């Protein structure tokens, strides 16, 4: 709307604003001492509209509006938090500075020396019951900080200490600034295989088609019998392991503990934020079991890949059952991998002959690629 110039000036003068300069349609005014909140042109316009009456402004112009949108990274982080809290974890926030012993105890993402701050951190860490040294190094992993939180909770006799954290780590580079990738750290008193299953559930909630693959790893912090590198395809997702006795002494931990650290960037790239529809076959499934004798060096991921490659589109799922060793019957360097497959077609009911052909292809491909032998009983 248009308000006459004299009306506008009259309103402003009544409120204590005094004209200082006037040039054409431009007027400069000084604010009264009690109106320190008025500093801009729009503030004067608001005063005129308020006194003139907002009810005098016709409501006939649509206000442009758009739906709010959360960044994809925030949506993935929110889904990760939902899965982990549903699995019984509490979210933790820890300090980014750690002592040198902790920084060197576990650094899977970088072998470069940790960055040192010019001024260390004072507080609870420097008063800890165990000798940890100066707290002035930027962490290259979330695990040391989470283990300290667990130690404090153990000291306070808390029975449930299930923690996770999403925060950046600081990896030195040849550039002026370090790389600061976002990581997800887990600390739990539950079994190694339970935590591995929770990680698999996390991946399934983000992307139902991505498969978790395990490989051997060697870290002094981990028990050699319960630790592994986690991959999606050929890319490292992170690591999981039960903390060794030496590692527990380093961090002052008394009870058994399993830790894991995952790369958020890879989870984000794998995430499917828009639900996808897939047809459900109305035809019955056929289940077949296999008992393969393989070399000790053969990994479950390799065997699963061979099964999937041979079975083709009628393969609905492959399920690991058990690893069994019988040195007297199979030899000291052999083991048995038991698995189960589900076959189902979307075009019609599979016959017994068709299922047998798929099973024969699986046996032949696994023997050719991995040297497996099928055990009939």
Mind summarizing the main beta sheet?
Answer: 7 strands, mixed
Shape: elongated
Q: How many individual helices?
A: 11
Could you name the ranges where pLDDT drops below 50 across 5 or more consecutive residues? 124-129
The protein's oligomeric status is: single chain
Question: How much beta, percentage-wise?
Answer: 25-35%
CA radius of gyration: 32 Å
Strand order, largest beta sheet: 3-6-7-11-10-9-8
How many β strands by DSSP? Answer: 15
Mean pLDDT: 90
Structural class, from secondary structure content?
alpha+beta
Along the chain, the helix and strand elements come as HEEHHEEHEHEEHEEEHEHEHEHEHE
Plain-language structure description:
Helix content is 32%, strand content 25%. Helix 9 packs across helix 11 (352-370). It starts with a helix and ends with a strand. The model is unreliable at 124-129 (pLDDT under 50). It has 377 residues and is α+β, with helices and mostly antiparallel strands. The protein has eleven helices and 15 strands. The longest helix has 19 residues, at 352-370. The strands form four sheets. A seven-stranded mixed sheet has the order 3-6-7-11-10-9-8, sandwiched between helices. A four-stranded antiparallel sheet has the order 13-14-12-15, covered by helices on one side. The protein has helices at 5-14, 41-52, 72-86, 100-105, 143-155, 192-206, 245-251, 264-270, 300-311, 327-330, 352-370, and strands at residues 18-23, 26-30, 90-91, 97-99, 135-138, 163-168, 182-188, 212-215, 222-232, 235-243, 258-263, 286-295, 315-324, 334-343, 373-374.
């Amino acid at each position: 709307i248009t308000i006459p110039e004299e009306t506008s000036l009259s309103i402003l003068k009544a409120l204590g604003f005094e004209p200082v300069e006037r040039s054409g349609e431009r007027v400069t005014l000084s604010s009264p001492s009690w109106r320190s909140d008025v500093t801009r042109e729009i503030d004067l316009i608001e005063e005129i509209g308020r006194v003139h009456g907002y009810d005098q402004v016709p409501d006939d112009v649509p206000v442009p509006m758009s739906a709010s949108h959360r960044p994809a990274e925030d949506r993935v982080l929110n889904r990760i938090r939902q899965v982990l809290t549903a699995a019984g974890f509490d979210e933790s926030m820890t300090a980014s500075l750690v002592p040198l012993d902790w920084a060197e105890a576990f650094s899977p993402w970088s072998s470069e020396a940790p960055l040192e701050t010019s001024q260390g951190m004072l507080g609870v860490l420097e008063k800890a019951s165990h000798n940890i040294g100066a707290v002035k190094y930027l962490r290259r992993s979330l695990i040391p900080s989470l283990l300290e939180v667990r130690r404090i909770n153990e000291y306070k006799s808390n029975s449930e200490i299930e923690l996770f954290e999403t925060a950046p780590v600081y990896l030195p580079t040849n550039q002026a600034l370090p790389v600061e990738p976002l990581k997800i750290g887990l600390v739990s008193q539950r079994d190694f295989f339970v935590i591995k299953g929770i990680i698999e559930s996390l991946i399934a909630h983000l992307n139902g088609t991505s498969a978790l693959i395990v490989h051997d790893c060697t870290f002094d912090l981990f028990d050699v019998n319960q630790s592994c590198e986690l991959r999606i395809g050929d890319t490292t997702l992170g690591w999981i392991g039960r903390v060794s006795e030496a590692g527990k002494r380093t961090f002052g931990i008394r009870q058994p503990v399993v830790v894991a650290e995952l790369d958020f960037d890879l989870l984000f790239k794998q995430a499917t934020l828009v639900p996808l529809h897939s047809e459900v076959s109305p035809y019955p499934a056929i289940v077949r079991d296999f008992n393969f004798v393989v070399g000790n060096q053969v990994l479950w991921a390799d065997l699963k890949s061979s099964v999937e490659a041979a079975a083709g589109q009628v393969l609905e799922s492959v399920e690991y059952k058990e690893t069994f060793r019988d040195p007297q019957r199979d030899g000291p360097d052999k083991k048995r991998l038991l698995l189960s497959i589900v076959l189902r077609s979307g075009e019609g009911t599979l016959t017994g002959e068709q299922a047998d052909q798929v099973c024969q292809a699986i046996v032949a491909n696994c023997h050719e690629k991995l040297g497996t032998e099928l055990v009939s009983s």
